[in-house]
């Protein structure tokens, strides 16, 4: 199919535009668990603070037979290791999460009745760790997974 690469590029472009237009990026420091008995006068330094990287909503079109059959919105946040620079990592993480969700949609893993949030979370966590390193991503929270079907008129 000659139009298949164009459809893929259109899907990626529309996902990027929707994701950046509707999504938001929020980075919040989350204090790591302090030692049981810290020395008197000791304070937590920036190297001891985990970062919560909220990727917001990522919107992914679901393509079927050359048309957009629906959209999936996923709200994703990541807990990063202390000392990570979220502002530098956010574009890489957003891109990897978007690519993983597009692949899952193309493979039918986001279809109603077959979507497995636990398996999708595991795939997203693996993708994040592959992107920036396994020691830098502590956990992933997939707090929302919503699908909207487009109806043929």
Descriptive report:
The protein is α+β, with helices and mostly antiparallel strands and 153 residues long. It has one domain. The chain has helices spanning 4-22, 86-106, 117-132, and strands at residues 26-31, 49-64, 67-80, 137-149. Strands 1-2-3-4 form a four-stranded antiparallel β-sheet. Strand 2 (49-64) and strand 3 (67-80) form a beta hairpin. Helix 2 (86-106) crosses helix 3 (117-132). The longest helix is centred in the middle third of the chain and has 21 residues, at 86-106. The chain is elongated. This is Flagellar basal body-associated protein FliL.
In short:
This protein is an alpha+beta fold. The protein has one domain.
Distinctive features:
single chain, alpha+beta, 4-stranded antiparallel sheet, elongated, Flagellar basal body-associated protein FliL
What spatial form do the alpha-carbon principal axes imply? elongated
Cα-atom radius of gyration? 18 Å
Number of domains: 1
Number of continuous helical runs: 3
The major β-sheet equals: 4 strands, antiparallel
User: Runs with pLDDT <50, length 5+?
Assistant: 21-28, 41-45
Kindly estimate the percentage of residues that lie in beta strands according to DSSP: 25-35%
């Amino acid at each position: 199919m000659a139009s298949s690469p164009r459809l893929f590029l259109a899907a990626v472009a529309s996902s990027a535009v929707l994701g950046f237009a509707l999504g938001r990026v929020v980075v919040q420091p989350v204090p790591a668990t302090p030692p049981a008995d810290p020395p008197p006068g000791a304070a937590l330094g920036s190297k001891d603070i985990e970062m919560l990287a909220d990727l917001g909503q990522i919107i992914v079109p679901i393509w079927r037979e050359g048309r957009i059959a629906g959209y999936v919105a996923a709200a994703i946040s990541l807990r990063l290791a202390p000392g990570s620079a979220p502002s530098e990592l956010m574009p890489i993480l957003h891109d990897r999460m978007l690519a993983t969700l597009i692949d899952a949609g193309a493979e039918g893993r986001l279809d109603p009745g077959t979507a497995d949030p636990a398996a999708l979370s595991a795939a997203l966590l693996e993708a994040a760790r592959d992107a920036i390193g396994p020691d830098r991503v502590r956990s992933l929270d997939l707090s929302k997974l919503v699908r909207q079907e487009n109806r043929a008129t």
